[in-house]
Amino acid sequence: MDERILLVAKDQVRANNYLSIMDKYDVNVNLVGSLKDAINLASNEQHNGILIDLPLMVRASQVIKGCIDDLFNGLPGGALNIHSPSGEVRLLQRGDKSCNCSSIDQFVEICSKFDPKIIFSKNRVQLNYNALLAMTPDLNNPDRTACINISTGGCFLFCVREDIVKDSTVWIRLIGLNDNNPIEAVVKWIREWGTTHNIPGIGVEFKNISHDLKKQINDIAKAK
Predict the structure, then answer these.
(1) Shortest CA distance to 174 belongs to which of 147, 149, 209, 204?
(2) What total of structural domains would you count in the chain?
(3) pLDDT at residue number 11
(4) CA proximity to 159, closest of 147, 171, 173
(5) Out of 23, 58, 150, 185, which could bridge 204 as a Cys pair, Cβ 3.0 to 4.6 Å?
């Protein structure tokens, strides 16, 4: 099989435990020791799925967690943990519902049917801007919301609307930046209210961002 699995584990003992499990399957495993390395590798090489050691997720910053959400919502995957005292490796569900899996067997099966992808989630910075969010380019009846983090490619917005679905188009105005024109964006993933302890909202990919606004966001990111 040509499936490529991105495995993230810093502790070598835990990594070896996970690798011994994955050796039972006919897949290629790319092991990295940090979430930042995983984000960079996922943006440069195609993968069919991702597995992350749970302790790394617990200690990650909000910015890194946002980037990892992009990976989980673009690829089948989950968080691995070793149950004490049994030593059993367990897979915890994460990400897009269509990619969710509750066991490693199921995870490998889903990956075998999933086209490999590159997931871009780099240069994201934690910046809070007031924002208007609407379903039409005229920003009719917009939601007053806030951007939690942002990159030149997209952002994460606080949102609890139930009528916004994955792959739908929205328009955003970021208050406080130089360009006030509405930005067309596509919803790439949704974190529903009440499903986690993290902020609910939507991850969007910008479609028509102006050159000047992209430059301003890039300059802000470099200064952080």
Answers:
(1) 147
(2) 2
(3) 94
(4) 147
(5) 185
